[in-house]
Amino acid sequence: MSSQYKLHRPLAFSIVQSLEEVLLEHRPVDKVLERCFKSNPKFGKRDRGIIAENVYDITRHYISILHAIPGKTDFWSVLGAWLVINGLELPEWREFKATDKKSILSNYREGVKSPAIQYSIPEVLDEHGRQQLGERWYKEMKAMHLPASMVLRVNSLKAATPEVTNYLSDVLIKYKVLDNKHGVEVEQRMNLFASQIFKEGWVEVQDYASQQVGLFVKPAPGDWVIDACAGGGGKALHLAALMQNKGRIVALDTDQYKLENLKKDPKGQVPRSLKHVGLKIIRSSKDWKVQLINSCSMYPVVDPVCYDAILMLNTESPLNT
Predict the structure, then answer these.
(1) In 41-59, which positions are buried (b, 16+ CB within 10 angstroms) versus exposed (e)?
(2) pTM above 0.85, yes or no
(3) pLDDT tens digits along 193-213
(4) What CA–CA distances, in Å, run from 277 to 28, 257, 259, 260, 262?
(5) 3-class SS at 283?
(6) Who wins on pLDDT, 269 or 300?
(7) What gap in Å lies between CA 233 and CA 222, rounded to an integer?
(8) What angle do CA 231, 74, 113 make, to 5 degrees?
(9) Which of 71, 113, 158, 265 pairs with 99 at a CA distance of 20 to 30 A?
């Protein structure tokens, strides 16, 4: 936790509601926060920062927080424990009435002696990580636990990189242009979703590694591409930009709601030719629907990073050979 502050009730309600969406409904944190801020336009910059910081930090430390409050899973208890752990003032609200500060701190200090609890890694994943990576696993756990920097991808259908960087300079935001030329790392916090460059579709939040996928494929205008494991559609949108909005893209994902989000993209980045195909389960390339699409596709794109944890837990997977 980076700062000391007094938590006000409307902010606490927004934090709890956002945590429910992220941890129970498995929705992306950035999209949840975007909806939260749009629904509460009176929240100021500091208010939004407090909400975002708590939602991200609690999500990242969720397992260690639960260890501090055994038997409790409601998000008011989770939030209360997080405030206690960080030495912040606990408001005298009915939701926090049963909060036992001494017990929380004792359980937490004992729990974080275990690296798995300290870095909020599930036990089964920790076991396989130690077996397969040995001492390197602890380095990986620590790295995964660090807050990710904000990396933007410039949407070349709408803007050029210098236009984006000029905007960031005008609003006094420090940045670094990455070596792929379309990536811009923002070096300080900003309310991206309220910015002109986001509202007008100039940029999309997309990490550097994900941006490299489209650049590796190098699709040309008019190509046919399958984006398997499309998620929220970040790579599909990048591929569309590289194809200059000409051709066909089939976006596949096991979660239909993610494809619905892609259809409803509010920033005008979805190309006219983008197709969305929702499959309940894609078990292997033997699935007849995938076979049919592959027969007329130039580039089937699968991002195996999405499956890292699954591959670690399933050593018999063909992707591990």
Answers:
(1) eebeeebbbbbbbbbbbbb
(2) no
(3) 788 898 888 998 888 988 998
(4) 20, 12, 8, 10, 11
(5) coil
(6) 300
(7) 19
(8) 85
(9) 113
